[in-house]
Amino acid sequence: MSSLRITGGQRLSGEIRVQGAKNSVLPILAASILSGGETVITNCPELSDVHAALDILRRLGCRAELENGVATVDSSSMTGSDIPDELMRRMRSSVIFLGAILARCGEVTLSMPGGCELGPRPIDLHLSAMERLGAVITERGGDLICKAPALRGARVDLAFPSVGATENTMIAAAGARGVTLITNAAREPEIYDLGEYLKALGVRVSGAGTSTVTVEGGPYRAFARHRVIPDRIAAATYIAAVASAGGDIVLRGVEPGHLTAVSDVFREMGVGITCEGDALLVSAGKRLMPPRTVTTRPYPGFPTDAQPTLMASCLQCDGASVFVETIFENRYRHVPELRRMGADIRVDGRVAIVRGGRPLHGAIVASPDLRGGAALLIAALAAEGTSEIIETKHILRGYENIVENLAALGADAGRAD
Ligand code: UD1
What we know:
Elements: E1 3-7, E2 12-17, H1 22-31, E3 38-42, H2 48-59, E4 63-67, E5 70-74, E6 82-83, H3 85-90, H4 97-105, E7 107-111, H5 124-132, E8 136-140, E9 143-147, E10 155-157, H6 163-174, E11 179-183, H7 189-201, E12 204-206, E13 212-216, E14 223-227, H8 232-245, E15 247-252, H9 260-268, E16 272-276, E17 279-284, E18 294-295, H10 307-314, E19 320-324, H11 335-340, E20 344-348, E21 351-355, E22 364-366, H12 370-382, E23 386-390, H13 393-396, H14 402-408, E24 412-415
């Protein structure tokens, strides 16, 4: 898909099913190599990041397939322990394979992940956690070489509740001898989900999803089956779409409890959100009110991944909305593109002030990153005329069928090749 075309002005109605969580399935795919057996993952979204993870698994010698939302990994034939630079670059989060390969093979070589669209992406917390578990890490010509013939359980106090570092530590700990205690762990639902998968493998895990996690390694079962949780960020994106375009939709297959911080903000803006089991009924009229200052925080706070799409829908508010981004340094790259559509947004360091209520107009805009690209789609739904969104590869990293879903809800959206 080279670009997307959206003509604004259509209210949304109808229902769609929300995909499985990208940020759950990636660490689970990495952890699937621990046992040397077979894993079946259902509700697996079909995304370019997931295909990149499957390519890494194949490169390591595993059998890895994805068909009709079911990923199957057989790691009994695993031979390799290196992830080449090209695969590391294709998926920024490939560092999530560090703990798993180390646990399975006793060594791993990966190229240093560079910065990314969201600013520098350090992995110091991942590395110091591996060292706590007994790894020795050296750097050679841009490659990281980690060796630990025998990992052993330890106490790991994270300086910041990093999602990826918590996951890497849990996975490595699952392959370590003895008990690992992780303090100041990230509490995201995706961590809980990883814990559930590790339990399905036979690992003893407690506290996943709280700030103190305990993991006691193997022995593993040869077969594990796991259903991935719903993607709360994709759900937040569709809520933002309704807020921006107006309308009345049903989102099926969601976990409303994972969306509390997001739903609270949209409700403040005047968006109707009602839960019925695993469905969310979302409705929005023409005029929205600005929410109180939105500050991104680790879970259960407002997610940084939902900031760009919320910001795009705040362009429909009567008055000024204020955002404070505390997680990533460079997370306002959608702002200059939104300005091309007529948005009035001022950025000063970590703060952005959005003056809503000005009419937006269609424009040619470029996706700066995954969630920033989604924000452009959200704004385009409310703009007068047609927008063309280029650099859509970023959007495809994380959203399954987003254009088809918006079109099914009545948006005038399609691919423009
Ligand atoms: C994960 C999510 C991403 C989300 C982010 C925050 C996946 C695949 N990605 O990314 O969508 O935006 O959580 O919710 O799950 N940090 C360090 N040193 C480290 C690790 C992180 O300084 O070793 C910093 C980062 O630069 C960033 C902050 O910690 O400023 C949060 O990063 P982290 O929670 O690790 O995010 P990711 O796991 O990379």
